[in-house]
Amino acid sequence: MRLRKSFNAFSLNLALNLNRNLYLITMKIKDITENILGKLNSMSAEDLIKWAFDTFGDRAAIGTSFQLTGTVMVDLASKHVKKFRVFTIDTLRLHPETYDAIKASEKKYGLIIERFTPDDGTLKSMLERFGEYLFFMDKAKQEYCCFVRKVEPNKRALKTMDVWITGLRKDQSDYRKTVPKASLVEEDGRKILKLSPLADWNTEKIWQYIKENNLPYNKLFDKGYDSIGCIICSTPLVKGEPPRSGRWRWFNKEDDNKECGIHK
Q1: For residue 95, is it within any domain?
Q2: What is the Cα–Cα distance from 215 to 225, expressed in whole angstroms?
């Protein structure tokens, strides 16, 4: 037990040495203790992103739908890591502006964004049973549509990694106001490390970074959108509305969480 604790401490100290270009040890998920989680939760966004890729290599990846937080995370990674993975869930119903943002990011950073799409057979079966606009019928069918188009592809993506870097922020909704920067979560019977490096950033700080660094971003944010997903299911906000009110607007009176299921 003493040897195990010594190994954990040595691994973390090595991984936190952010001045080194190459780490000698790759930490495993089983080596992450509550003490390590505490230290990760106290790190800055750029240090946490650098730590993740330096420590886990291609077993870490940024997951983004190319909203503002994802835009910043990709840029931070580009400044602190030579090689890093980025993946997105292509529901096949994204806004044209979102596809434009993906292409702009690939061009700026020389990336090939990994795209995970719905299973062909499952999607076909859903559409044959309920039609293309099932998400209007009731909450259960909206969640089913999200599961087929988003949650299941995301589960496939997570099977390829041990560290999932997300764009969750505390100011996005009441449901997310306690989101930690680092936590261990269960995915399909195994533990993975879920990171939200910008959890403590607010919208003002996000925009400031984007403008100061002249980053490409989803132009829907210039049209009143604050949370962007599929066409129809994400709409512009009315002044004074909470950030995620534009998602599945027809359920605003009965659902305050407004989650597609990926982060539940």
Answers
A1: yes
A2: 18
Two structure tokens written together for 129:
């049973």
Would 83 be classed as within a structural domain?
yes
Confidence band for 103, pLDDT divided at 50, 70 and 90: very high
CB 154 within 8 A of CB 116: yes
Domain extent for 139: 43-220
Do 260 and 188 form a contact (C-beta atoms < 8 A)?
Answer: no
Instruction: Give phi and psi for 197, each to the nearest 5.
Output: -60, -30
When pLDDT is averaged across residues 198-212 and rounded to a whole number, the result is: 95
Evaluate if residue 150 carries a pLDDT over 70: yes
Would you say residue 18 has pLDDT above 80? no
Domain count along the chain: 1
Decide: 116 and 143 in contact? Cβ < 8 Å: no
User: Which CATH number belongs to the domain containing residue 180 in this structure?
Assistant: 3.40.50.620
At a CB cut-off of 8 Å and minimum separation 6, what does 219 contact? 97, 100, 101
Q: Per the domain annotation, does 262 fall within a domain? A: no
Q: Which residues are catalytic?
A: 260
> Is the distance from CB of 251 to CB of 142 less than 8 angstroms?
yes
The larger pLDDT score, comparing residue 232 to residue 257, is at: 232
Residue 65 lies in a domain: yes
* Residue 239 pLDDT: 81
189 Cβ neighbours under 8 A, 6+ residues apart: none
| Amino acid identity at 150 | K
